[in-house]
TrEMBL record:
<keyword id="KW-0472">Membrane</keyword>
<dbReference type="GO" id="GO:0015697">
    <property type="term" value="P:quaternary ammonium group transport"/>
</dbReference>
<keyword id="KW-0813">Transport</keyword>
<protein>
    <submittedName>
        <fullName>ATP-binding protein</fullName>
    </submittedName>
</protein>
<dbReference type="InterPro" id="IPR003593">
    <property type="entry name" value="AAA+_ATPase"/>
</dbReference>
<keyword id="KW-0067">ATP-binding</keyword>
<dbReference type="GO" id="GO:0005524">
    <property type="term" value="F:ATP binding"/>
</dbReference>
<dbReference type="GO" id="GO:0016887">
    <property type="term" value="F:ATP hydrolysis activity"/>
</dbReference>
<comment type="similarity">
    <text>Belongs to the ABC transporter superfamily.</text>
</comment>
<dbReference type="InterPro" id="IPR027417">
    <property type="entry name" value="P-loop_NTPase"/>
</dbReference>
<keyword id="KW-1003">Cell membrane</keyword>
<dbReference type="Pfam" id="PF00005">
    <property type="entry name" value="ABC_tran"/>
</dbReference>
<keyword id="KW-0547">Nucleotide-binding</keyword>
<dbReference type="InterPro" id="IPR017871">
    <property type="entry name" value="ABC_transporter-like_CS"/>
</dbReference>
<dbReference type="InterPro" id="IPR003439">
    <property type="entry name" value="ABC_transporter-like_ATP-bd"/>
</dbReference>
<feature type="domain" description="ABC transporter">
    <location>
        <begin position="2"/>
        <end position="236"/>
    </location>
</feature>
């Protein structure tokens, strides 16, 4: 889908990206992460030619990006950023419809697409389509920004620190929403963040950069289980590495079929072992009752099983 071949980029003789080689498969959610100045946003912006590389080649679906007209290239890619960038004097509907209108879509098709996207992001179309950005919360504005990026059904969605300015509760909700949208749509998504927990939650693969060079490319579990060097270990967090590993492991494999004692706290079957550990600690208990979305009891989870050798 997207391929970086020996990509380099310099600013005033300083290397911002150095020999980047990476293949992003169709349907993958890849996260670029690293310290400030590591080159992660530069790498992202080279994909849609907001920044031009000065060495190597970038391919989109096997075709060199410089062979596309730049407007055509960008219309193939949705782009969502931290500051949202909604047009303040346009309604939600008109903001979402920006690219479809440029592409000449019929009015009925545009209206249908706006309704579809608002519904996808949990915003009732009849309630929100005629509102203006200043009438929305920060989280709602960000939802509209992502909906606008998806409006023309692009092959690729590029996201540069999209949730960075939001409060922790709204940010967590939108992270889960993006994860759900990715799973349901199968879009190829490339996301930049400085937040390792966000990367671990969302990514199929994480690309960790430092001084413009790739330090490690791995799945979240592989990154935590087999850090390439001390820089990776420090970046992901030595002190709570075990807790982060638990956040990637589901409850289901440790579920016992027998019921927990009466009155035991409940835990959703979709929860992670990190969430289970937090619930055990909060209730000062050693066993939880695991339930499905209909609140039917599926079995029990015991603290001893979380720490048992596997």
């Amino acid at each position: 889908m997207i391929e970086f071949r020996n990509i380099g980029k310099s600013y005033d003789g300083v290397r911002a990206i150095d020999n980047l080689n990476l293949h992003i498969a169709q349907g993958e959610l890849v996260v670029f992460i690293g310290p400030s100045g590591s080159g992660k946003s530069t790498a992202l912006k080279m994909i849609n030619r907001m920044i031009d590389h000065d060495q190597g080649r970038i391919l989109l679906e096997g075709r060199e990006i410089y062979s596309f007209d730049v407007r055509e290239l960008r219309r193939r890619m949705g782009y969502a950023i931290q500051s949202v960038g909604l047009f303040p004097h346009w309604t939600v509907e008109r903001n979402i419809a920006t690219v479809p209108q440029l592409l000449g879509w019929p009015r009925e098709r545009i209206s249908q697409r706006v309704s579809e996207l608002l519904t996808l992001f949990g915003m009732a179309p009849e309630q929100f389509r005629q509102r203006y950005p200043h009438q929305l919360s920060g989280g709602q504005q960000q939802r509209v920004g992502v909906a606008r990026a998806l409006a023309a059904d692009p092959a690729v969605l590029l996201m540069d620190e999209p949730f960075g300015a939001l409060d922790p509760v709204t940010r967590a909700a939108l992270q889960l929403e993006l994860k759900r949208v990715h799973q349901s749509s199968g879009k190829t998504i490339v996301l930049v963040t400085h937040d390792i927990d966000e990367a671990l939650l969302l990514a199929d693969r994480i690309v960790l950069l430092n001084h413009g060079q790739v330090v490690q490319v791995a799945s979240p579990l592989a990154l935590l289980s087999n850090p390439a060097d001390d820089f990776v270990l420090d970046f992901v967090g030595r002190a709570d590495l075990g807790i982060k590993l638990l956040s990637l492991q589901p409850v289901a494999p440790l579920l016992r079929q027998q019921r927990a004692p009466a009155g035991a706290p409940t835990l959703a079957e979709a929860a992670t072992l990190r969430e289970a550990l937090a619930t055990l600690a909060m209730h000062r208990t050693s066993v939880l009752s695991v339930v499905n979305p209909q609140q039917q009891v599926l079995g029990s989870l015991h603290a001893a099983d979380i720490f048992a050798p596997r």
